[in-house]
What we know:
Layout: E1 17-24, H1 32-45, E2 50-54, H2 62-66, E3 74-75, E4 78-79, E5 82-84, E6 87-91, H3 92-95, H4 106-118, E7 125-131, H5 138-146, E8 151-156, H6 160-175, E9 180-186, E10 190-191, E11 198-199, H7 206-213, E12 218-222, H8 226-234, H9 246-266
Parallel strand pairs: 1-7, 1-8, 2-6, 2-7, 8-9, 9-12
Antiparallel strand pairs: 3-4, 5-6, 10-11
Helix pairs in contact: 1-9, 4-5
Magnesium ion binds at residues 32-33, 56, 61.
Amino acid sequence: xxxxxxxxxxxxxxxxxxxxxxxxxxxxxxxxxxxxxxxxxxxxxxxxxxxxxxxxxxxxxxxxxxxxxxxxxxxxxxxxxxxxxxxxxxxxxxxxxxxxxxxxxxxxxxxxxxxxxxxxxxxxxxxxxxxxxxxxxxxxxxxxxxxxxxxxxxxxxxxxxxxxxxxxxxxxxxxxxxxxxxxxxxxxxxxxxxxxxxxxxxxxxxxxxxxxxxxxxxxxxxxxxxxxxxxxxxxxxxxxxxxxxxxxxxxxxxxxxxxxxxxxxxxxxxxxxx
Length: 274
Ligand SMILES: Nc1ncnc2c1ncn2[C@@H]1O[C@H](COP(=O)(O)OP(=O)(O)O)[C@@H](O)[C@H]1O
Ligand SMILES: [Mg+2]
C-alpha cells in the first residue's frame, strides 16, 4: 500500500531525519506536550540524536517545558535550532516570545509549518518528535499530509471525554494513512504519597481498552505525578529524574520499537531482478 493517497501531495523526506514521530491528541490539557518533551529528552538520554518541533503555533509550551528562552539564529536561509538536554528544538515561542497571541489563518500556518520542517537545519537526527496542536484541524492536516510521518502517538487521559476525542484522533491518522505507533494513557492513576494507595482520579484503563477496540497498540500508562507537572513548569523534564522518570524512559523505548516495526510494515516490497 502506498503511504500517499491518490491526489495527495508527495511526502518529501527530510534529509538526515530517520524517524518523524507526531504526538497528537483530540483534546488539549491531556499531556501531549509533556509526552512530546519527555519522549524527545528520553530518546536523547538513551543516546539517540533527537529533535523536537513544536507545531502548536498558537500555544507553544515547548520553550517553558524545556527551560529555553532565546532566539534562534539564521544562517543564509536556514534557521539554526536551539539545543537543550541534547535535543534540537524549534518553536514559535522562540520567535514570538511573551503573551501576545498570533492571529494567523490557514495559508500562513501552512507555510510556518513547512518552514519549521524544512527551513530548520535539523542536521542528522534519529528521531524528530513533533508536538501537534490539540484536535484534528488545519495545522494537523497540513502537516500530516506533507510530512513523511513515520508514526503517530495519541495521548489521552482515561476519562470518557478525553477518550472520545482520542478516538477521533486515531481516525484522523487512519484516514490520512499515518501509521499509529500507539495510544498513551496519561494521568492514568495517582499513588497517594502518604498511604501509597492508588487513586484513579480520571478513571483507569480506558486507554488500553480503546487501543484494543481500535486495534492499535497500547504504548504506556503514565502516572499522575506532581513531579511531572513540576518538571514541566520549571523546564526540567521529569524523564531526567531517577525513579519518577522511568515510565517516560520506558515509553521512549517502546516508541523506538514501534517506529521500527511501522517502518517495516510500510516498506515497499523489494523488487527482485536478475
Ligand atoms: N502525568 C502527569 N502528572 C502531573 N501533571 C501532568 C501530567 N501530564 C501533564 N501534566 C501537567 O498538565 C498540564 C497540561 O499538560 P500539557 O502537556 O501542557 O498538555 P497538552 O499539551 O495536551 O495541552 C501541564 O501543567 C503539565 O505539567
Ligand atoms: Mg500542548
